[in-house]
Write the structure tokens for this entry.
Amino acid sequence: MKAKKQLIKERFPNLTNKELKSRNFSITKYELSNFFSRKQRTIIRIYGAILILSFILIIFGLITQKSILEALFAVVFFYLLALLFKLVRLIDNDRLAFWNEYLLSTPNNPLKIVMLDDDSKAKVNAIRKQFTRYFFVFGSLCFFLLFLV
């Protein structure tokens, strides 16, 4: 991410921090409204709410030490698996094709989109794979803890 931030600073040196935040918000909003369908946007919001709720329940279970803790370990396992599949989806070629099409159709680039080079993309994908493995191992450990508790 540092490389991308540095690349943005090099290509658009006059942007202030406030403009960078506004740029990021605009890109996210544009992507949500044009790349994802209405159904996908709803699923993303529900998914986020479920993850926040499960995190709150996990904290509650750890504090109160009730029997709900066993069920919460299973919840953690399944939500981490869901996160695994979400991370895998993020490296989809459709998103790259979407932004390449955007750059071709709007050459003045008002959103100030910066595409990474192939080496940087490979590094990002390697990091995503590493985090996916970590989440899977952590989720598996939580699942096996169900049998020990």
About this structure: The two ends are 40 Å apart (CA to CA).
